[in-house]
Amino acid sequence: MRQIVCLATSPWYPIPTRKQQVMSRIPDAEILYFDPSATIIAPLRDKHAKPLMTKYKEPPVHPQENITAYSLPPVLPFFYKKRAINRINQKKIAKFIREKMKEHGFENPVLWVYSPVTVDLVDLVPHSALVYDCVDRHSAYGGLMDPALVDAMELELAGKTDMTFATAEALAERLRTAQPKTRFIPNGANFERFAEAAKPQPVPDDLKDIPHPLFGFVGALQSCIEYDFVEQAAKARSDWHFVWIGKEKPGVDLSALRALPNNHFLGMKPNEQLPQYLAHFDACLNLFAKSDLSKDVSPLKFYEYLATGRPIVSTRQPDQILQYAPLIHIADDAAGFAAACEAALCDTQPERTAARIEEGRKSSWDARVAQRCDVLAEQGIV
After folding, report:
1. Which own/partner pairs from 238-242 qualify as long-range (CB within 8 Å, at least 24 positions apart)?
2. Do both 28 and 113 map to the same domain?
3. Are 160 and 61 part of one and the same domain?
4. To 10 degrees, what angle do helices 350-362 and 300-308 make?
5. What percent of the chain clears pLDDT 90, i.e. is strictly above it?
6. Which domain holds residue 297?
7. Tens-place pLDDT, residues 102-146
8. Are residues 278 and 170 in the same domain?
9. Domain of residue 146, CATH code
């Protein structure tokens, strides 16, 4: 059985992202999955981060029989601004990982990483092959970072790999300057789960009193979302109702939307419950605002929407959704968004619903991971 050490950028629980979806589907593998480190100052910004300071001392969790998930110890802040700080952090993390590898009998596993910061770790952890899976333009996140440093670390990391993957073609093109074998494989959907939304589902209690038509958004409520389009549509059409499912990120001002009676914020929902909500949306919303970050994202929500067969209203971001233009409704401005919503309400033809579901099937995580495993097998990596 192959051994894989995965250094993730999101914890295994509670939200399944590309990292968990990929690791849970790699066949014949024993996997050590490491949740990302929090910084030692994280509790100053978020009181809920305090338990993360000692979580690495707790026993691991076992989300699957072949997967053991650990939390990493906390690290120093500002590692995206100062390379010296990153080297200190990665040395500390590498020591922790080597200890866990020894406990589990891992000697030369495949080292699978998701962040540019690991460039200063990979030479400190024994491995038979190195895989980098790029899921975003990390230098576009903003905040306390030096974008040029982040980009430089990422290219240096890619140059060390045996294989690099990217979720967007533009990301792949850039990474090919350092690793010519870089492959573009976008995100996907848990097709079997989200296709359930195409079948009759009970109405969740917190949807029962919200009138139709319902336009629904599922995902993180972060700064890269085009809220203004919804605000203008909601003011113009008081009979339309907008449902938001997801966690509100720090620094996002949603007060204008919250003041409107036809906007409904339901908070986060367990992933397994989402099909029950999506089944009752008259249209699903993909609302990335134009930016360097959103241009190259690969939104899981979009592929999950496809799997439901529901009509989709989307901004023109990211680039990869444009291949589905004949099956969705694209808006470039607030007026276009209102028109797209009108069109989506009429988009109920069975053949178009079936076509969206089929695209969701082609974009399933099973298919995406099979692609990845084929590439790695060709390279003799797994």
Report:
1. 238/262, 239/211, 239/213, 240/213, 240/215, 240/341, 241/210, 241/211, 241/212, 241/213, 241/214, 241/215, 242/214, 242/215, 242/216, 242/217, 242/285
2. yes
3. yes
4. 140
5. 90
6. 191-362
7. 999 999 999 999 999 999 999 999 999 999 999 999 988 878 899
8. no
9. 3.40.50.2000
In a shared domain, residues 176 and 282: no
Provide the number of structural domains found in the chain.
Answer: 2
**What's the pLDDT band for 162 if we cut at 50, 70, 90?**
very high
Same domain, residue pair 158 and 42: yes
Do residue 358 and residue 273 come from a single domain?
yes
Burial label, 261 (beta-carbon count in 10 A; 0-12, 13-18, 19+): exposed
pLDDT number for residue 77: 96
Q: Which long-range contacts (CB under 8 A, 24 or more apart) does 262-267 make?
A: 262/234, 262/237, 262/238, 263/230, 263/234, 264/210, 266/206, 266/207
One domain, residues 162 and 213? no
281: its two tokens: 């949306």
Tell me: the pLDDT tens digits for 331-353? 999 999 999 999 999 999 999 99
What is the residue type of 188?
G
Measured between alpha carbons, how far is 358 from 367 in angstroms, rounded to an integer?
13
Residue 75 identity: V
Confidence band for 292, pLDDT divided at 50, 70 and 90: confident
* 160 CB-contact burial (10 Å; exposed 0-12 / middle 13-18 / buried 19+): middle
Return the percent helix, strand and coil in the chain, to nearest 5: 45, 20, 35
**195 and 344 together in one domain:** yes
Cα-Cα-Cα-Cα dihedral of 103, 84, 82, 120, to 10°? -40
Strand-by-strand arrangement of the 110-113 sheet: 61-64, 67-71, 29-35, 2-7, 110-113, 129-134, 163-166, 183-184
Distance, CA of 252 to CA of 249 (rounded, Å): 6
